[in-house]
Design brief:
The chain is an alpha+beta fold and 440 residues long. Helix content is 56%, strand content 10%. It has helices spanning 24-47, 54-73, 81-101, 115-123, 126-146, 162-241, 246-278, 284-292, 315-331, 391-399, 421-424; strands at residues 150-151, 157-158, 281-283, 301-306, 310-312, 335-342, 346-353, 403-408, 413-420. Strands 4-6-7-9-8 form a five-stranded mixed beta sheet. Strands 1-2 form a two-stranded antiparallel sheet. It has a two-stranded antiparallel sheet with strand order 3-5. The longest helix is centred in the middle third of the chain and has 80 residues, at 162-241. The radius of gyration is 35 Å and the shape is elongated. It comes from Paracoccus caeni.
């Protein structure tokens, strides 16, 4: 699975659950917090003797309370993107109106007008976020022009110097772009990671289904053996009784031979299925050959230099190693070398190619989903990659207890995977059964 070029996502990623818009319960909870904060600010300002249009301010706060009560007590509804956009627009208008009634840009709490667009950036699409951002800038500008000034206890207007007011307006406009852009970027990266994890789970589930298919085949062969034996017996008896009728005898004999043939096929399938079912461990070289198999005929020579102990035949490990090998084959010029070394404490697998290697600027970030990780080149034809990069391999191998390092020096890319021996070595000891009952 190469991440050297951000390719189109695999088909099964279209099955990944799309992130839902922000839930109504969350919007309601955030608004309750805002209402409590607004009421607390009004009470403190009133206690300090600050003069402002307290009636209209309380009316705006009451409007927010009524909106929340309508959402809580009204008919149950499912959150949708247009509805979330409407609720955030309501919050923006309410906060901007409060800002205009309480001094405009001179109000130290004016920065709270950035909250709706920031929330929108985490849950709505780009178009709606942009619309709310533009609306925020427009409403900030209007509120700064038509703002009613605050007054202290002596009735003196609390005004801000024009230069400071312009600076505050510019800061709020920059804040709209910065907070919205930052929240959007973080949300996009979290979404990419979520989709990549979903792809990892799907790929691993597919490998596990293939591994357990042998058990299903063995069970099917066992269950179908009895009815086939009955068919064979009845067909034989019919053939014996119909020897004086050549046409019917031939049909009965053909039926018996077909039943025998089915029995032979099922016995072969049953043996193969049992072998697959019981193949829980394999030599290290066999595991590497299994992982490299799909890429053996894609152009570069894949050379395996490995001798080691029997290891667990884990579908996740095989799938992850296959991803790393694919990445090497995709960018190798002519040769990929897979080496393995086992000691008394660790088992180490090294995969190197003679391609362009990783970009030095991105080495520290390798393993992030959808990251461009090679200097030049596109994926080699002949294999349909998932476009998720080394993220899947890194995630699966680290879950198996391995540590991964990425470097240049093969002369191309160099990947080292190291497991503690007790995490990867197969346990060949069989559990003892129950002691026989020797009592007579």
């Amino acid at each position: 699975m190469d991440q050297a070029s951000p390719q189109s996502e695999p088909l099964f990623l279209s099955e990944a659950p799309e992130p839902e818009p922000i839930r109504l319960r969350t919007l309601v909870l955030l608004r309750w917090f805002a209402i409590v904060g607004q009421l607390a600010t009004v009470i403190v300002a009133w206690a300090m003797g600050i003069g402002f249009a307290i009636g209209p301010v309380l009316a705006l706060i009451a409007a927010a309370v009524l909106m929340n009560l309508w959402l809580v007590l009204g008919p149950a509804r499912r959150s949708s993107t247009p509805h979330a956009f409407g609720q955030l627009t309501f919050d923006l208008i309410q906060i901007s109106a409060l800002m205009a009634l309480t001094g405009g840009l001179s109000n130290p709490f004016a920065l709270l007008v950035l909250a709706p667009v920031t929330v929108a950036a985490t849950s709505l699409d780009n178009r709606q976020t942009l619309m709310l951002g533009v609306a925020t800038v427009v409403l900030i500008s209007i509120a700064s022009v038509v703002a009613l000034p605050l007054r202290d206890a002596n009735g003196t207007q609390l005004l801000m110097e024009p230069v400071l007011a312009i600076g505050h307006w510019v800061a709020l406009v920059i804040g709209v772009a910065f907070f919205a852009g930052y929240a959007r970027r973080v949300t996009a990266e979290l979404g990419a990671t979520s989709r990549a994890l979903f792809a990892s789970q799907m790929a691993l589930a597919r490998e596990q289904r293939l591994q357990h298919l042998g058990g299903v085949v063995a069970a099917a062969a066992h269950e179908m053996g009895t009815p086939l034996a009955t068919i064979k017996l009845i067909a034989g008896e019919l053939a014996d009784e119909l020897k004086d009728r050549p046409d019917l005898y031939a049909d009965a004999n053909a039926l018996r031979e077909s039943a025998e043939r089915c029995g032979q096929i099922l016995r072969g399938m049953g043996r193969a299925g049992k072998e697959d079912l019981h193949l829980r461990s394999a030599p290290l070289r066999a595991v590497l050959e299994d992982a490299a198999g799909p890429h053996a005929d894609r152009g570069p020579v894949v050379e395996i230099l490995a001798e080691g102990p029997d290891v667990r035949r884990d579908p996740a490990v095989i799938h992850a190693l296959r991803n790393l090998i694919q990445n090497a084959v995709d960018f190798a010029q002519s040769r990929v070398v897979i080496e393995a070394d086992s000691g008394s404490e660790f088992v180490t697998v090294t995969i190197r190619d003679d391609g362009p290697g990783y970009s030095p600027a991105l080495l520290a970030r390798i393993g992030d989903p959808f990251l461009t990780s090679r200097r030049t080149g596109a994926q080699r034809n002949g294999y349909e990659g998932m476009g998720l990069g080394l993220f899947i391999a890194k995630t699966l191998l680290e879950r198996s207890g391995a540590r991964l390092t990425f470097a240049n020096g093969g002369p191309g890319a160099l990947v080292t995977v190291r497991w503690p021996l007790d995490r990867i070595r197969a346990d060949t000891r069989a559990a003892l059964g129950q002691n026989p009952n020797l009592e007579k």
